[in-house]
Amino acid sequence: MAFTGKIGVLTGGGDCPGLNAAIRAVVRSGIAHGYEVIGIRNGWQGLIANDIFPLSDHLVSGIISWGGTILGTSRTDPVKNPDDIAALKRALDEQGIGALVVIGGNGTLSAAKEVAEKGVHLVGIPKTIDNDVFGTDVTIGFDTAVAIVTEAIDRLHTTAESHHRIMILEVMGRRSGRLALAAGMAGGADQILVPEIQVLMNEVCSSLEARSRVGKKFSIVVVAEGTRHEDIAGTVVPACDRDECGHEKFVGIGNFLGKELERRLSIETRVTVLGHVQRGGSPTAHDRILATRLGIAAVEQIHTGSFGCMVGMQEGRIVQVPLESVAGRSQGVDPKVYEEAMNVAGITEHK
């Protein structure tokens, strides 16, 4: 049975390039189907507070190239408080919103699954520069972030070679090193360190020393922020040291790694923490196309009355994945791809 009613759209969690392209696609596809599309400000927080406004073709004109999200975002989790669920459902009823498009990463989509179980009709769209959402080969924002990090590696390469230094680039990746791995491969990094694969400091030092022995007087090391080294004192985050969302506060693995390498190898080392630069700016053509296709697909799901799912991309095709299969799961680095990257870098032995 075809859906009738208004469609709401929200963006939750961290921002990334491509969100506005997805919003634009939802609005235009919704209008084409005869729906009124409602924008919800600041993620779940805006829905709980009934902070909404109508979206029109005019409002989304030209935003496909913009970074960030015109809707704003937050990390509010609506399922932590029963009162928030009640407020959320009340806002939907008052505004006549019959279905939601929820654009987010692992946390937002896990919350979406629980909200859907409370009787709310919704469809999810995956976004995150980490590219670790289960059920899709790629997420909105990943391609742009890889391009940004790769450019940073290229720029560091020239100064590293000029000064015969070790350059360490710390990138985002709390639990997944897929961004570090992809950009490290694209930028020709000499060592890539990720949370999923333990590499001891002795191994890192041996590989960099081997480069120096054959006349390669500089090295590029890419490290994901969530990487832990139990053999370096101080890099393991205490269980109690968490932010307001329950996430571990990072200690700056790049700086720890830089000091340790300089101490052990006596080679001048410099550290660059790329930070939120990775999440900003205009999306690549790939991210714009992906976001547009997923936005259209989400509205199609709503139009056919198919809810409680996420639209994703698998082997170049749009797929629908039940949210219950997505929530609480993530995709990490493929060990085979990591091995390939290390082989190309000339590092073949890792535990």
From TrEMBL:
EC class name: transferase
Q: Which GO terms describe its biological process?
A: canonical glycolysis; fructose 1,6-bisphosphate metabolic process; fructose 6-phosphate metabolic process
Question: According to the lineage, what is the superkingdom?
Answer: Archaea
Give the Pfam families listed for this entry. Answer: PFK
Q: What is this protein called?
A: ATP-dependent 6-phosphofructokinase
Transcription regulation as a keyword?
A: no
Copy the pathway line from the protein's UniProt record. Answer: Carbohydrate degradation; glycolysis; D-glyceraldehyde 3-phosphate and glycerone phosphate from D-glucose: step 3/4
The EC number on file is 2.7.1.11
Q: What is its main location?
A: cytoplasm
User: Which reactions is this enzyme annotated as catalysing?
Assistant: beta-D-fructose 6-phosphate + ATP = beta-D-fructose 1,6-bisphosphate + ADP + H(+)
Q: Which gene encodes it?
A: pfkA
Q: One GO cellular component term, please give it.
A: 6-phosphofructokinase complex
What residues bind Mg(2+), as annotated?
A: N106
Q: How does it assemble?
A: Homodimer or homotetramer.
Listed A to Z, the keywords are: ATP-binding, Cytoplasm, Glycolysis, Kinase, Magnesium, Metal-binding, Nucleotide-binding, Transferase
A single GO molecular function term of this UniProt record: 6-phosphofructokinase activity
Residues forming the Phosphofructokinase domain are: 6-301
Binding residue positions for ATP: G14, R75, T76, G105, N106, G107, T108
Reply yes or no: does the keyword Chaperone apply.
no
Q: Which cofactor does it need?
A: Mg(2+)
Task: Name the residues annotated as catalytic in the UniProt entry.
Answer: D130
Any idea what job this protein has? Catalyzes the phosphorylation of D-fructose 6-phosphate to fructose 1,6-bisphosphate by ATP, the first committing step of glycolysis.
Organism annotation: Methanoregula boonei (strain DSM 21154 / JCM 14090 / 6A8)
